[in-house]
């Protein structure tokens, strides 16, 4: 904690003239992506806000009823949807982030979503689309093996993983960025809980995973980009 105080961060790479990194990992030209439902066409959920807050709960057991494609689109839009780009590679999204840096990439292990093959995907927030990464069952087994509570990731509809691209935050905030990453992860996951509650879907936040195994399963180096938080999602 002492190493990440403001006093230990008198300057930052950005203040010294280092340009900020791009706000989303690039996709090779010609790569096939899967457009998600237009956010403007997603159904508006009418809720009693106080009831929503009171009924929000962690759910660890799920039914075998799949999520719909639109429901997955809705959850992704509510957790990382981009409302507008900002100067210096920032963005305004549906969740807060220190300095508008939004360092997270969202990875998904999809098992039961209508219209999608089971497998690993990455959410492209600026395009509101999915990038397929792998539909190999061995990749799925490797992914699930990273979690301590394997029952939650074995029988759910989708597992969300938020991985931090470290430079997006350290460029602006130096080593204090490590604090902001974990704060931002909490913002994102709470939005997932609340959005899921509006469509009668359960969520369980997950912090108990093997960092090395999960990073390896997602193809991350564990240094420049690394998994920070996860959540299982499924129909109640």
Structural features, described:
This protein is an alpha+beta fold and 236 residues long. It has helices at 49-55, 69-80, 137-144, 150-154, 166-173, 177-198, 211-217; strands at residues 34-35, 82-86, 90-93, 104-110, 119-124, 129-134, 158-165, 201-206, 225-235. It has a 7-stranded antiparallel beta sheet, with helices on both faces. Helix 3 runs antiparallel to helix 7. The longest helix is centred in the C-terminal third of the chain and has 22 residues, at 177-198. The N and C termini lie far apart (39 Å).
Mean pLDDT: 95
**Helix share, percent:** 25-40%
Total number of β-strand segments? 9
| Number of distinct helices | 7
Oligomer: single chain
What structural class do the secondary elements suggest?
Answer: alpha+beta
Radius of gyration from the alpha-carbon trace, in angstroms: 18 Å
Q: In whole angstroms, how far apart are the ends? A: 39 Å
Total domains: 1
Going by CATH, the homologous superfamily would be: NADH Oxidase
Low-confidence stretches are none
What gross morphology would you assign?
globular
The SSE string, one letter per element, is EHHEEEEEHHEHHEHE
Strand portion = 15-25%
Give the biggest sheet: 7 strands, antiparallel
């Amino acid at each position: 904690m002492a190493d990440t105080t403001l006093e230990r961060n008198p300057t930052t790479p950005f203040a010294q003239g280092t340009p900020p990194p791009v706000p989303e990992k690039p996709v090779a030209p010609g790569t096939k992506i899967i457009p998600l439902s237009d956010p403007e066409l997603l159904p508006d959920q009418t809720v009693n806000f106080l009831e929503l807050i009171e009924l929000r709960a962690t759910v660890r057991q799920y039914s075998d009823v799949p999520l719909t494609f639109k429901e997955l689109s809705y959850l992704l839009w509510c957790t990382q949807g981009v409302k507008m780009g900002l100067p210096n590679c920032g963005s305004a999204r549906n969740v807060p982030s220190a300095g508008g840096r939004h360092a997270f990439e969202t990875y998904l292990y999809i098992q039961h979503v209508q219209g999608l093959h089971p497998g690993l995907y990455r959410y492209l927030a600026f395009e509101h689309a999915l990038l397929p990464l792998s539909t190999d069952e061995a990749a799925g087994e490797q992914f699930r093996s990273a979690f301590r509570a394997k029952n939650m990731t074995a029988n759910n509809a989708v597992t969300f993983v938020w991985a931090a691209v470290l430079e997006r935050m350290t460029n602006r905030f130096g080593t204090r960025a490590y604090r902001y990453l974990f704060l931002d992860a909490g913002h994102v996951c709470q939005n997932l809980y609340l959005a899921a509650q509006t469509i009668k879907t359960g969520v369980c936040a997950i912090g108990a995973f093997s960092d090395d195994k999960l990073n390896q399963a997602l193809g991350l180096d564990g240094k420049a980009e690394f998994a920070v938080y996860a959540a299982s999602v499924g129909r109640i």
